Structure formats: structure tokens, C-alpha cells
Amino acid sequence: MIFRFEDIELDTDRYELRRGGAVCPVEPQVFALLELLFANPERLITKDELNERIWKGRIVSEAVVNSRIRSARQAIGDDGKAQRLIKTVHRRGFRLLVTPEVEDTTTPPAVACEATVAPPPEPAIAMPPPAEPGGPPSIAVLPFQWLSADALQATLADAVAHELIVELSRLHWLVVIARGSSFQFRGPGLDLTAAGERLGARYLLTGTVAVEGKRSAVAVELVRAADQHLLWADRFEGPVEDLLGLRSTMARDIVATIDYRIPIAEATRAAGTPTESLDAWGAYHRGLWHMYRFNARDNAQAMQLFERAVHTDPLFARAHAALSFTHFQNAFLGYARDVPAERRLTREFAEKGLALDPLDPFSNLCMGRADWLEGDMERAFPWYDRCIELNPNYAFAHYNRALADVIVGQGSRCDAGIGKAMSLSPIDPLRYAHLATRAFAHLVRGDYAAACEWAERGARAPNAHVHIFVIAALVNELAGKRSAADSWAAEVRRRMDGYRPELFFKAFPFRDDGTRDTIRGAFTRLGL
């Protein structure tokens, strides 16, 4: 749906607000507010309706509502004094004073229904061009082989592969070859290297489906097409009557694994290329490897590589978002002296990424982290929720949402969210952060013994940064384990001389005064 008036377009399919053809970044709540007003021109939208539609019934302050209205006005060239477009009806609500033209861009119901069902095999069509040596990574899902005797159910194998194509298409950084092309390569004994070259795919996903008695089994392999190197393989089993449920669970797990495995393969590939010869995607993936090491030196190297990526390709949304992430690290971990400047750059690069690709989950997530860095968790929540809407299998978004939940005191909700993140990505580079977040969930509920277990596991995980060691020291002190607390505190001092509670509370702005007082007391007793 596109709403138009004057030079303004609100595109609900692309999730874009445009003025004069240029994309204007807006927060998810502001976008939702504009959509509500544009869809109901001249009608009074009461404050109760706003609360229900925008904040899902959560109680928010008058100041929060007024802030979103102010941002909505600014986004469309209005202000609170003129109220030319959005009028405040005192004590009642708000009204849009113009009637936009509406263009319905939705898919007709019949077509939308067909799109959810694996269609019959397409006739032969032209292949995509051969894969470029550089550029974004690409993958083709080849038809899965049916290994059972019942040929009448062989279409189930195609349905499994089709579902994987649909789910993989949620990964904006990955080029997914269309079914019409990839399904022309069918049967055992395929030359995978030739198939990859013909399809223009750097990676191939192959598999088999079998029904044995009352059990069904799906085996999958992720292969680098150029040399047929096996990157990952797994097997999924379940009751034959629950094959549809198995498809859904399996697709989720496979997409989450590919979201992790291919970037590692791309970083390894880029590592063998001289820096001056890297293309934008090669620089980006090598930068990711450095970024996730969480130390000042690697973060600086990551920043240089991301800067090279955006210089080479100024329209590369994810590289802008990655620059936002490195500036977030500078502020969050105290790598830079000018923290306000790092906060500003965190937001600036996140906004650039979002403007270039409003549907990229990573760019949306970096907008939420910019709000987090400014201590405004209320504004961060919608960005994390938007990420999960765009890609329900995005473990990083589930982790960020869970951490935000615990900071505002929602320990139980945090448990569910961090459990989801850990199940989606069991070998995540941020595993230490997942474990520490679970420790926080126990801390805010006063279960310090359980918090110790999770915090220490986090502190012993690869790439743990100084805040993780602080958490381990704090919860051990709160649990009365002074020897362990002192040991972790010594590690904190070794890694960052002069660490102060202010850095911790800027990183984790807990809302509850009691929680803050408890943590501050532990800091005092530890001498940090």
C-alpha cells in the first residue's frame, strides 16, 4: 500500500517514507503512527486507540506519545505550532487533515495463496550469468532427492527444498537463486561445480528426504561449489505424520546455521586476498571477522575494512550498518574518549544503512542499538521487534530484545528471548553475551547462585569482553563467593585499568532503582 499527498509517499510494503523521492529514515513507532493516521484521514485517532495500536496496550507516558507525534510531524514537514497536517485535539487525540491518494500494491489473494505452495516444476528457462569472483555470496538450493519407494510422495522432497528457498530469501545479505533455475539440476551424480558455475552460485545446499517405517529423515549438506568442499552437514528426524512440522523446524535451524556458516567461509576466502584487491563484499566479510573479536585493535581494523567497503560501494547498506556497530563498540566498551561523538556516528551510520535498505534486519537492529546507547530502551524495542518480523530466525535480534527486556526488569521475558537466540545459534560468536544475558535474568530476580553459573560460563567463552568479566565479578560478590568475585575483579583490572561503575551503567542502564542499588553496592565492596 502506498499513500501519497504533496511530495510525500508512505510505502507500507517497502516500509519507507519518501519525500521528493528521497527515503526519510523514521523509527518503527513513528512509521506505524503515520500509517495509522494516513489510513484514517480526517478521523479522530484517540489516545486510547494509539496506545492499543502502536504500543500494543502497554502503558506509556504522555511525554512518549508527544515525542512520537513530534517526530511524525517533522518527518512530513509539519510542526506542533502550525499543525498544518496533523492536528492535536486537546485531551482527546490526533487527526490527519489531508486525504492521501491510495495505491493498493498488495498481491491478489489467489496469487498470494499459490505463492505459499510449492508449484509444479517450471519449464527450462535461461540460466543466470556465471558467478562473479567477487560480489555478494550466493546460494542455490538444488532439488532434494526422494529415497523412499513410494513415488507418489516424491513431491515432498521438492516441497522441503522450496521451503528452504523461501526462508533463505529473508537473509538480505545473501543472493538466493530462484527455484525455476536451481530445480533444473535434478538427480544423483550431479557435477556440483558445473551446477554452481551455471547457476552463478558460490554455495549449494543439497539434501535427501526418506521415510522409513514411521520415521521421516531429512539430510542436508552445504557445499562450496568451486571445489565441492563440504562446509556443514546435518540430519533431521521426526515422526512421519509430523513431516510438515519437521520441515518448519528444520528450515529455521538450517537458515540460522547458514546465517553463521557462510560469513565465516566468506571471511576465510577474503583473508587470502590482499587488502588492496578486496571488493566491497570481501572487505565487509573480513571486517566482520575482526568486529566479532571485541577488542580495540580488531574493532579499529574492522572499521577500516567497512570504510573500504562503503568507499567501493556507497550503496552497500550492510557495510554502513557495520560501521554503526563498530562505533557502538567504541562507546559501549570505552575504546574512544569522545563518547558523544561515537554515539552520534552510531546513529548516523545506522540511518544510512536503513535509508539504503529499510528491510535489512541488521540495519534495523543497529537503529535499536543507537537508541540503547542513548539510554532509551523504549525507542529500541520496536526496532528489535521489526528485525524479528523481517527474519524470525535472526538470533542476534532475539538476543538484543532479551537484553533490553532484562534492563527494563522483565527477567522472565528475557529468559524466553535469550533461550530462543541460543537455540537458533548454538555456536554464535556472541555466545558469551547470550550466557551473560541469562545471568542478568537471574540477577534481577535475586537468584544469584544461578546467575553465577551463567556469568562464569559467559566469561570463559571465546571473545568475552571486559563487561562480561564485570558481570561475573558482581554476581559472585552478590552470591557471597568472595574469592571467585575477587578473581574476576582482578581480570577486569588486568583488561581495563580504571574501570568504573559509570561505564557499566551507561552500557546497561537498568531501570529499577533497587537493581541499580544492589549492583552499585557490589561494585563498592569489590573496590571497582
Task: Give a written overview of the molecule.
With 528 residues, this protein is an alpha+beta fold. The protein folds into four domains: 2-103, Winged helix-like DNA-binding domain superfamily/Winged helix DNA-binding domain (Arc Repressor Mutant, subunit A), CATH 1.10.10.10; 125-270, TolB, N-terminal domain (Rossmann fold), CATH 3.40.50.10070; 273-392, Tetratricopeptide repeat domain (Serine Threonine Protein Phosphatase 5, Tetratricopeptide repeat); 397-407 and 415-528, Serine Threonine Protein Phosphatase 5, Tetratricopeptide repeat. It has 22 helices and 14 strands. It has helices at 28-39, 47-54, 62-75, 109-115, 155-168, 179-182, 192-199, 243-271, 280-291, 296-312, 317-332, 339-356, 361-373, 377-390, 395-407, 411-424, 431-443, 448-459, 466-478, 482-495, 501-507, 513-526, and strands spanning 2-5, 8-11, 16-19, 22-23, 45-46, 86-89, 93-96, 101-103, 138-141, 145-146, 175-176, 203-212, 215-224, 229-239. Strands 9, 10, 11, 12, 13 and 14 form a six-stranded mixed sheet that branches. Strands 4-3-2-1-8 form a five-stranded antiparallel sheet, with helices on one face. β12 (203-212) and β13 form a beta hairpin. The radius of gyration is 25 Å and the shape is globular. It starts with a strand and ends with a helix. Mean pLDDT is 86; it is low at 107-132.
CATH class of the largest domain: Alpha Beta
Distance between the termini: 55 Å
The Cα radius of gyration reads 25 Å
- The total tally of domains equals 4
Please tell me the CATH architecture of the largest domain by its name.
3-Layer(aba) Sandwich
What share of residues are in beta strands? Answer: 5-15%
Q: What would the principal axes of the Cα set say about the shape? A: globular
Q: How would you classify the helix and strand content by structural class?
A: alpha+beta
Number of strands: 14
- Poorly predicted regions are 107-132
Task: Count helical runs.
Answer: 22
Q: What is the CATH homologous superfamily assignment of the largest domain?
A: TolB, N-terminal domain
The third-level CATH topology of the largest domain is: Rossmann fold
Helix content: 40-55%
Average pLDDT, all residues: 86
Largest sheet: 6 strands, mixed
